[in-house]
Records
---
Amino acid sequence: MAKVKDRLKRPLRDLRISVIDRCNFRCQYCMPAEIYGPDFVFLPKSELLSYEEIERLAQIFVELGVEKIRLTGGEPLLRKDLPYLVKLLSRIEHLKDIGLTTNGVLLPKYAKELQAAGLKRVNISLDSLKDELFGQINGRNVGVGPVLKGIKAAQEAGLGVKINMVVKKGLNDSEIIPMAQYCKDNHLQLRYIEFMDVGSSNGWKMDDVVTKKEIYDILREHYSLVPVDPDYYGEVAKRYRHQGTDIDVGFITSVSESFCSSCTRSRLSADGKIYTCLFNGNGHDLRDFMRSGVNDRQLAERICEVWNGRDDRYSDLRTAETVANRKKIEMSYIGG
Ligand code: SAM
Ligand code: SF4
Ligand code: SF4
């Protein structure tokens, strides 16, 4: 396998695995309820990779250089027995980090079990601290209480916790400071995410984006922030630290300051397709290829071929024309 790895033209360090495309929320920027209504057809179970299939592919990705795996969805904690998958992945030699991105609602039930299985960290999505606004954003009228309980459960279980806040102009930009203060008071790293044009159902417009610069300027009026050097090549978040603390604030600047040239991330969908960019329209099948009886080396060769064939720079090239005309996968399908 080492020889296949040597042929990769660019390092492949980071893998996101979506384990399910369903969700218990309908966040308006991700799964608008008008589109993901009661008749929406999600993937049937037979289409999903089994945990053993995910383990096998993850092992091969790690042999090709992946050091970090993040489980995502839809809502990953809706997939039955997720701690078992974490346990399988935690046995993979040379895999340095396993994380999970979740809306947090099911963490009180699973946080301890996930930590015991080998999970290191969770990113929990929370876009507002106001019940009414949060209920409107998540499309299910769920107040912030269940998410705050999930955050507490994750901290008590000893997991590293980061909070993801998608900021959309006129919707929740008034929550930039309350969220910063809540995270500072509770020793949580907050990451502000620029609203993105993932998929084609969330009605994205450039005018809806609150850029990192705008958020930073608002924060600077309230806090002293010191820039922090990236921890590793390709780190996506630009980080600052509240002066005199070890609490960071991060920005995911996918729209205003794209980072395609250092992108080392691949994504695996719940039905076993590999995507080399969040904004791809079509993935490359690994599931049926694997089910046809090929060996690990053949799978590694396929992954290498797909990765070497990539020339993705979507965020570098984003224009009104690409936003409107390009076929893209939905965020809930590929998991961010
Ligand atoms: N359900 C889980 C959750 O919400 O954390 C995991 C999947 S969700 C698709 C992953 C991340 O993508 C979340 O932090 C969510 O806020 C973010 N996200 C969804 N739609 C987005 C958009 N249009 N722009 C930016 N981030 C988005
Ligand atoms: Fe579900 Fe996460 Fe998308 Fe919200 S952001 S609808 S919680 S997948
Ligand atoms: Fe990577 Fe595509 Fe995002 Fe650029 S737009 S950073 S290539 S995922």
---
Amino acid sequence: MAGMMVFCTRSLLSRRSSSPALRHPFVSLLSRQISSEADSIVDRLKSSGLLRTQGLIGGTWTDAYDGKTLKVQNPATGDVIANVPCMGGRETIDAIGSASETFSSWSKLTAAERSKYLRKWYDLLIVHKEELGQLITLEQGKPLKEAIGEVSYGASFIEFFAEEAKRVYGDIIPATLPDRRLFVLKQPVGVVGVITPWNFPLAMITRKVGPALASGCTVVVKPSELTPLTCLAATELALQAGIPKGAINVVMGNAPEIGDALLESKQVRKITFTGSTATGKKLMAGAAGTVKRVSLELGGNAPCIIFDDADIDVAIKGAMAAKFRNSGQTCVCANRILVQEGIYEKFATAFSKAVQSMQVGNGFHEGVVQGPLINEAAVHKVEAFLEDAVSKGAKILVGGKRHSLGMTFYEPTVVTDVKNEMLISRDEVFAPVAPLLRFKTEEEAIHIANDTDAGLAAYIFTSSMQRSWRVSEALEYGLVGINEGIISTEVAPFGGVKQSGLGREGSKYGIDEYLEMKYICLGNLSN
Ligand code: NAP
């Protein structure tokens, strides 16, 4: 840790809430108790060697060159968990140099050798599932059970691509002339810049680093400044697994500076990004300068369509899962719940009852299923969206305000009479707020669902097989869940259409994002 303790100008204070003024007296007491629990978790993580607080360049744990640091805070309490380096362009250039040097040896290993390293990394991630889960809850806020679930999900990409590494096949193409043979080789793209968001501090990284390393690429990872600790712990485990120094480098801090260094470097051949559509567009434009490949997993605006013929219990369970995972802070969260008029009232009543039963609180506490929002800005966004909706005629059935726990806790909310033109239907709310829209016909539902620039996930609930196919095919989305609210898995392709992104992650298709095709023509064979 840098001795100087100079904080980065891009302070977290603007991105995190730590205002004690927001706390109720009882909450302060509770909060102190929670803080001491969190302290003992931090101590345990320190002694296990998993609380890493430096970046990694060429296998060496490194401070920011100018000694600046960033605070990593617990969104449930506002407490500072750790200080990490606030790095910028210079550290990124060195990290790229290290990734580039290691690329020549890593890419030459056999697929089976790379596979063994990845498999070992997977095993270590699973062995340390609990500690990694605790770290996710500490820095991101999601309930511990959900956080441990993210570790299993995140690790599954390392396991899957350890296996997939051995299945990168080329092709032999029937020749057009008798004395020629035509081949296609698949080769790693090169050094990859990996930029990830805060909402899945582990899984968004493994979904990219797994296939990158499997294919022979090396990486420079930039986790979100809000949640770097899980990434650093996972990287420590990668080193313990024997993955060579320089294959994975981690920098964090000044995002635009790090981003520019990655974009401007000719050594970086690809940028893979998960985050907001606005940042994705900037990166895509920036990648043009060196004609880099880009993969983008951007924002969504998922419709969840519930038809009159749906099994209502299945629909409620599915909509709850699709809406409230990670307190509504996922790109595939149901952002608009479209309910057909015949069951609208019945659904709204039963759904509201389920929503009211959810326990909100610190993710370390038994029974809690909804944690805090990531920061004050997230709460302000919900407030603005709800104000707009109510001013245009929407009604709040449940919740609709900050939770009495203070901080950035928000009450799980159900809003009815929502219209397509309200802000809440136009953009991701990224919070535990479920807007219910009413529709009459299948055509109208499809029209509303597709009336957005986003196209990531969509959900439909119906008991008609014909309708399942018809609507799935008509939806302009990369993923469709039929009678299911949670559909992500390492074995299926994940990605969006329209402004939700480019490329796919996971599955047999995911590794292609990190491979170049090379055509080889062997001629004059008859001489
Ligand atoms: P964000 O603000 O775009 O940040 C994402 C990452 O980009 C962070 O690491 C951030 O760094 C970095 N970043 C910001 N500006 C940058 C720049 N100029 N150059 C380089 N890097 C830059 O998004 P977020 O708020 O963290 O994440 C939420 C969004 O992610 C939502 O829209 C959600 O839908 C989307 N998301 C999509 C998927 C998907 O698979 N499609 C999955 C999860 C989330 P700092 O945090 O350090 O500033």
---
Amino acid sequence: MKNTTNKKPDKKKNSNSSNSMLIWFAIIFFVIASFAFLPDESANEVEISYNSYKELLAENKIKSASIENDNSFHGELFEEATLINKNGAEFQDRKLFVVFLPADYSEQISIWDEKNIEYNFEGEKIDWTGWLLGFAPWLLLIAFWLFLLRRMQGSGNGMNNVFSFGKSKAKIFSGKQKKVKFKDVAGCIEAKEELEEVIAYLKSPKKFEKLGGKIPRGVLLVGPPGTGKTLLARAVAGESNVPFFSISGADFVEMFVGVGASRVRDLFEQANKNAPAIVFIDELDAVGRQRGAGLGGGHDEREQTLNQLLVELDGFENSSSVIVMGATNRPDVLDSALLRPGRFDRQVVVDVPDLNGRHEILKIHTKKIKIKPKSVNLLDIAKGTPGMVGADLANLVNEAALLASRRRKASVDNSDFQEAQDKVLMGVQRKSMVLSDHEKKVTAYHEAGHAVVALFSPEADPVHKVTIIPRGRALGVTMQLPIDEKHGYSKTYILSRLAVMMGGRAAEELILNEITTGASNDIERATSIARRMVCEWGMSDIMGPMAFGKKNEEIFLGREIQSHRDYSEETAQKIDHEVVSIIKNAQKTALQILEKNIKLLHLMADQLLEHETINESDIKLMMAGNKISKN
Ligand code: ADP
Ligand code: ZN
Ligand code: MG
């Protein structure tokens, strides 16, 4: 493969953080604004000192007063005057003032009588508006908080949502939906057999119990993503005609502590009421991860949920006919308590389909589209798609149908499938990318180099297609397809692969006497394979069959994040040395093959420049020294 080097700069901006900033600003604004609205009482009454009061009294300026039971004297003057408050500030044209009297002011009363001041005594006045306004910021905050809560809940049913956390979110498949049957699931023969037994039990639980047979209560579907686990579970529901409660592990995880556990309880309560029934927990690893592995430490929310799940699994031992099914693609991270007898004790493996399986899956999915009669050979497509799972194949068929409709064809034919396959396997064609003539020439020799080395290396996969039309991130692609599925690889095969990877760069060097950045991806992949040969597969003669470096699995993150070095500095140097020598040998091998077949290399590069894409039969022609004749 030859790469483009201009990676696009990452333009992801944090629009999220600016959003929450806005919310905070809004909150702060509200708080400040509401304090500003508080009544400023000093605007009406000036709080003066006791001395000033005595002066006013002596000057006979006070007309009337009311004394409250906190000893405050609220006075009114005969006419407006300039008042000085107890802090020394001046207030002009004021009539009202307040002063605090000594605890025992009985002496004062006689003075007031003497001066003919109207006075009365009142209980402390409560300033209702002020009081309410004082609460305003809190009310606003609470309202705002409720509003946020509702938004987080997905705002669907308004207020109801806030109070329905603990309900399980399980969906019930009822008769109205289109039922999935076993015949809609291709392959997975062993898995289906196991599940048939479960279905037979659900159809007549009494019969089984009479015979004293013990049926597994928990069935765990295990397999890589896209292999049809969810589909299979739905097929069980469709076949058995019992209520089917389906929930995804992620639905248990919520913002509030304890919600997950109560959802589990609710789910099983519902299932028990409707027994016989099936409970299906998809993506079980979301709740079922090993306990005590969280980065946040000990007893977290997820653990509570898992504990509740374990309790419920034990709960309905023999009392009811509820079967629990789970699906996961990470059985290795599941808590071992989940896999104990009596819980998910039966594991059903749903594996990547083989040739026959892929053929069957293609048959099922092509039934839904209109295919030109006799034009498409599904078996050939199945052969050309090793390693693809059901979801990929469904996608492939869909792509082909889309291509045909884009070309306004009445039905889907072979060329649509071919292009869809190329698109899925090698990335989208980038026709808009214009290469200079020199770039094209370099790419043609680079890809021809890969192809020629592949043709003459022992055990190498046959070359399926070579193209210099840019696809995805690559300027050109050489595609090899294995003859049949491989489950393990020999050292010869791997060395051949390394040679093929180095073939691109070697051809550039040999013919054009320059090297380009286009080989960066080849080199990266080759280096990683070479290192694994030494460190994992024990394929180095010098280092011997030893595994170097222990992988640390961080279960909470779900993947291996570091490889722990368990060897000395000296060994590390030796390993590096071995890796370098493996790569250099592969390069040498590639160069030798190319030198020996330089005529074929020139011919192939030449033909690539002319036709842009060549396939297996074209290559056979060229091996015999002929040019390709295309129409
Ligand atoms: P998983 O749950 O294992 O990740 P799914 O069951 O969601 O995979 O499969 C995704 C889609 O792929 C299905 O909806 C179906 O269209 C297709 N598919 C996968 N496996 C099969 C199969 N064995 N037979 C038919 N279709 C399949
Ligand atoms: Zn390459
Ligand atoms: Mg799934």
---
Amino acid sequence: MTLPLRIAVPSKGRLASPTTQLLRDAGIAVPGDDRRLLVPVEEQGIEILLARTDDIPTLIRDGAADIGVAGCNQLLEHGSDGIETLVELGFGACRLVLAVPNASTITSSALLSGSRIATSHPNVLAAYLEANAIAASVVTLSGSIELAPTIGAADAICDLVSTGETLRQNSLRMIGEVMRSQAVLLARVQTTPDPRIAVLQTAVESVLAARPKRYLMLNAPDAALDAIIALLPGLDAPTILPLARTDMHAVHAVVDAAELPRLLHPLKEAGASGLLVLPIEHLIP
Ligand code: AMP
């Protein structure tokens, strides 16, 4: 009997809701209001393991899960041996940066030698310091990193930021970037030959590819057909279908959602009618 494929999903925190949404869009039945942390979805041959995001790389590496989602900063921190990154998911974007109090005389990361740097990413920071020949000491804290300089626990910090607002609120100034991160779909290297991994990866990739796209349908009078087609962006030729009436054709095209606001009016002006814009659930280019 084949064992169920175990998928580790962040149970709470920043990556929980976008991950659950993505997997559901990909057709995976991630449970909603379930108190259990290991939920079998028998009809799909999977188990959902709800876990702390920070633990997910370790769970995958040790074989407690086959596949899962975490930040790539967390993957590097906990060791990526035996783990393959299948897909960059585009959410959870952030940067691991070095920062000092506004009043500090340190103006760049090269000047951090001799200082104490507080972080919850000791391994990534140590590798960065070694690679850049910076002789600083690492103070490992699990939270409230921004407070460390104020309370005298460190001279600088190495922390995750997305907008930089938390740094500003704590009178801290960025002096360097250690890495950029985003959420990633991870799999255990030993499990990747399992065809169910490729099936899941394709489902997830097709959802990500579809999200920024829309399916545009319109009717074009034959006299305006060329002008209307010329307005449509993209390399792929649109689909042209004959209509029951003889002087018009239907035009279908996949377009960027971001292009639509500036596209609709010229299409209408060119004579298009019956315009419909539909979401796309899956797209494989
Ligand atoms: P959690 O602690 O479960 O909320 O997840 C934290 C993960 O979310 C981090 O390891 C990053 O990969 C990601 N993330 C994205 N933006 C930020 C941010 N501004 N601060 C902290 N983590 C972030």
